[in-house]
Amino acid sequence: MKKWLFGLLLAATLTSSAQELAEGPFNQLIIRSAMLINGNGAPPLGPVDVVVEQDKITEVRVVGYPGVEINEKRRPALKPGGKEINAEGMYLLPGFVDMHGHIGGVAQGADWDYVFSLWLAHGITTVREPSGRGLEWALDLKKKAERNEIIAPRIFAYTGFGAGSKEITTAEQAREWVRENAKKGADGVKFFGAAPEIMQAALEENKRLGLGSACHHAQMSVARWNVLHSARAGLTSMEHWYGLPEALFDSRTVQDYPADYNYQNEQHRFEEAGRLWEQAAAPYSEHWNAVMNELLELDFTLDPTFNIYEANRDLHRARRAEWHDEYTLPSLWRFYQPSKISHGSYWHEWGTSQEINWRKNYQLWMTFVNEYKNRGGRVTAGSDSGFIFQLYGFAYVRELELLQEAGFHPLEVIRSATLNGAEALGVADQIGTIEVGKQADMILVSENPLKNLKVLYGTGAIKLTEKNEVVRAGGVSYTISNGVIYDAKGLLAKVRDMVQEAKDKEGFTLTQPGVN
């Protein structure tokens, strides 16, 4: 039996090198008596035994009926040297796919080991990294993760369009950059917008090469090139919602910017973005339907990242999320505070009016996303953590809650987090559901997430027992990825130690600006 001790891999960040946080891979792993939530929209089924051999699911067997003793003769046999997990009373889900996961940031003071631990502790086994510290850096981590040299999820590394080159001013330069990006081993490209001829050439070349693509349609380019243009040219997915309301305009061609607007002033940028959806065509109108139907025909993916803008509609809630106390690094907490420099820290003067506008914005935005799902469109789950008071791992669970708020049934939420993400990345034949022949990316949770998605938070959900005791229920128990079983709660303890060590070193206490 081969085991990885976190202390051997990341000794510098552990308080006790003897604490085991991961074990495996095993020649055989059997998960016994679980309640299965498959990820494809099917209702829960159990008890089931799931057999894994060499990181491949080889059998999913129903072994009994609720409340009836299991006949041991019906169960798959454990081979010598195999490992089994008693999952009675637990829920088994496919590993989550975060379609927008930044691996920390220099400005945030958050490095990959901190981020990966939080992701895996929340059941995230696959991440699309939408450009960050450079392709070479991301690919190095990707390879180490594949070899189980570090504790990490599966990584799909995207490169920010134009990274590493001089300004791209011609269509041929755009095509050449895309070709070079593919040669370097990138899984895709993250676009922010450019001149129409540049976007057209780059997207067409990227599609020809079979790479994935995502786009945050920045407002500096969106007046001439919105989501529809990108989708027609070959973009496979959009992030956030920029470019979608602009495609829905029917009484204007540009956003209704105030005369004193300055894009470089992020309070202006995000405040006015909160009024953008009300400027678009009304829900279910002819133009609204036409845009949606064309995107559906193009098999386009929406990755809304609802959570990353939630502070805009309730700043106090986002600031005081309980996990900040124990899991947010001091450097990251400082990065979140009002600043004219730090991206996403635009709280120059954020008030009631801005929050009300953003709540209305969400209603219209969620209406489009939910209807897109209802008509067969693919919607995925992405967090964009590390900005705007959203913390790695925890923010992903919040994204799932917001999908439910938008109108998704909890089973549809889980499908967005699993199968839909795998489809968008082109690996649905490998991950996304718990089926024979697929890799064993799985999560075990002690509580039913369909009843309450909050049980997926590392902090669990508050619950009152029959004895009138307040307890914390849930939290992921085990995350299984790349053949390795991770102790999710142990990973969280490791992060708490890391954060406390940083606080002790600095003499840091979490404070409110202007108060302490």
CATH fold description of the domain at 96-424: TIM Barrel
% residues in beta strands? 15-25%
- Count every helix, treating DSSP H or I runs of 4 or more residues as helices: 17
Whole-number mean pLDDT = 92
CATH homologous superfamily heading of the domain at 96-424: Metal-dependent hydrolases
Structural class: alpha/beta
**Percent helix range:** 25-40%
Ends apart, CA distance between termini: 52 Å
Question: How many beta-strand segments?
Answer: 20
Q: Any idea what the shape is?
A: globular
Query: Rg, please?
Result: 23 Å
CATH second-level architecture of the domain at 96-424: Alpha-Beta Barrel
Largest sheet: 10 strands, mixed
Instruction: Please report the first level of CATH classification, the CATH class of the domain at 96-424.
Output: Alpha Beta
Task: Detail the poorly predicted runs.
Answer: 1-19
